[in-house]
Model the fold of this input.
Amino acid sequence: MADVVGPAAGSVVVGIDAGGTASRAVVTDVSGVVLGRGTAGPGNPSAGGPPAARAIGSALRSALGTLDPASVVAGVVGVAGVSALTDPAVAAAFAAEWRSLGLRCEMAVVGDAVTAFAAGGSWPSGAVLIAGTGAVAALVEGLEVTRVADGLGWLLGDEGSGVWLGLQATRLAAHRWSAPLAREVAAHAGVATRYDLVRWAGALPPFGALAPLVCELADAGDPDARAIVADAAARLVATLDSLAAPAAPVVLAGGLLVADTPVRRGVLATLEARGTTPGTAGDPALGAARLAARGRDAAHS
Done:
């Protein structure tokens, strides 16, 4: 159900976060007051193809509720893998969905790094550092990502990410079976011997599921977990530094950097020692709506 707080008084904008797990839509007035919210299934076109458009449309229908779609003057959709929209079938599915909703405005599609940055503040440009399952840093200017570092996937990069944490813990367990951390990893994997762990890892389990365990053990004082977490924080800062960004605002995003984790605290300590106090990303759908309102204001200035 839409969380509608009242009818739209004048023009409204919409923001959508099209994630691989769920699609979330927010409708606000042009001043940022939330008028409605909606959720639906996965909306990442890179993974879901044309059906992702239907999930996004469902979330937006729920968010609009009884509001007139014709009152929407601007919209922004944040997705991972914007290049998927170059597929004619995917692009056609999105265009058809907007028509079926009765929207009269253009819906801008941007990378999820852009909406994450916008969810951290009202700055027009700056850098965003994201660490969740994967890890990436990006420079953002307006509605565009102008430079990217890492985001290469867990085989080639994503250093400091949740998957990276899990891999480091698993590797340590395989090499130092008697370590306390190894016992915790073995319990998570449900294995009794080092060679069972090797077979478990060879099946490519979701290594990122170990990240909360590593963070918990680090906070409890386990020296191996603390070393892994410290290395993760250092690698994330190195990824951010590789952008060679000018003095600009930085937004932290992704589960490891939004929640109170030892990884976030490590990154914050380094940045704050430099005199940088970063913003923290909130709701990316609301960030997308903020971008839509900003674009609408720019068009009318």
User: Anything to note?
Assistant: The two ends are 35 Å apart (CA to CA).
